[in-house]
Amino acid sequence: MPGASSKVTAASLRARKAGAEKIAVVTAYDVVFARLADEAGLDAILVGDSVGMVVQGESSTLPVTLDEMVYHTRIVSRGAGRAHLVADLPFMSYQASIEDGLRAAGRLVKEGRAEAVKLEGGVAVAELVRRLVSAGIPVMGHVGMTPQSVHQFGGFKLQGRTEEQRARILEDARAISDAGAYAIVIETVPQSVAAEVTGAVPAVTIGIGAGRACDGQVLVMHDLLGLEPADVDWKPRFVRRYAKMGQTVGAAFKAYADDVRAGRFPSAEESYD
Ligand code: KIV
Predict the structure, then answer these.
(1) Considering only CA atoms, which of 139, 221, 214 is closest in space to residue 177?
(2) How confident is the model at residue 3 (pLDDT cuts 50, 70, 90)?
(3) Which tops the pLDDT comparison, 235 or 182?
(4) From ligand 1's centre to the CA of 49, what distance in Å?
(5) SS in 3 state form for the chain?
(6) Which among 33, 95, 97, 116 has the fewest CB atoms less than 10 Å away?
(7) Contact 223 CB / ligand 1 (< 6 Å)
(8) What is the per-residue pLDDT across 255-270, written as a single tens digit (0 to 9) for each?
(9) What confidence tens digit (pLDDT) does each residue in 193-237 have?
């Protein structure tokens, strides 16, 4: 694994713009999986507000609170040693005012131990990005299908199909890159849009459902690991499953329950005299 021992930072990621080796990012929400991702050599761990959907069972990211993000970031930080640690600013922790955004990001860094924060939007949040960067907080942007705007989009739908959307995504990415963002997540857009953005900004681009031209990729941990019940086999087109952990865990739970019910667990060796 190249550079396996050196700490990954916002600056070291930024320096990998258009590099030969792409940046690999995954989400995590607790210390167990953060440690596994860190040991596997992932470049960055994102404590995404996707926690609302994959951990809390909500149908969108909107209900996630700042306190919850601080909590999850802090427990992930105990497992993220080498990997760069980024935390999401949740919905309405930064949209109402720049002061809100500065204070919320400050909590993610001070209490959560995040090394950078991620926020959604472009032109509308550019001034906040500038202020965060001046305050010493590295910022990862997020454009395209931004899940906190799910109601405006009418669902988690592909963005950037029309010329107007394409131009807006490019303008948004330029605005936050110019404001000092070191990285930008580009979500669920045609690959040509992501390629255009990647060529247009000095920030590194991290794609999810955005094709191969980005400087790196991010996936939600549960999607990558196949952490869903055995009877669910639907997945978004952009997800590749590297494991079937839902099936493995389900089978282990069932075997345990069978052993307990039949009196096979615990054995004499698993008991104290
Ligand atoms: O919340 C999240 O996990 C994210 C990724 C999908 C990029 O924003």
Answers:
(1) 139
(2) very low
(3) 182
(4) 6
(5) CCCCCCCCCHHHHHCCCCCCCCEEEEECCCHHHHHHHHHCCCCEEEECCCHHHHCCCCCCCCCCCHHHHHHHHHHHHCCCCCCEEEEECCCCCCCCCHHHHHHHHHHHHHCCCCCEEECCECHHHHHHHHHHHHCCCCEEEEEECCHHHHHHHCCCCCCCCCHHHHHHHHHHHHHHHHCCCCEEEEECCCHHHHHHHHHHCCCEEEEECCCCCCCEEEECHHHHHCCCCCCCCCCCCCCCCCCCHHHHHHHHHHHHHHHHHHCCCCCCCCCCC
(6) 97
(7) no
(8) 999 999 999 999 999 9
(9) 999 999 999 999 999 999 999 999 999 999 999 998 888 878 999
Cβ 26 under 6 angstroms from ligand 1? no
Interhelix angle 98-110/66-77, rounded to 10 degrees, is 30
Q: How confident is the model over 110-139, as pLDDT tens digits?
A: 999 999 999 999 999 999 999 999 999 999
For residue 62 the two structure tokens come to 């909107």
Q: Whose CA is nearest to atom 6 of ligand 1?
A: 220
**pTM of the predicted structure, to 2 decimals:** 0.97
Give the phi and the psi of residue 174 in degrees, each rounded to 5.
Answer: -65, -40
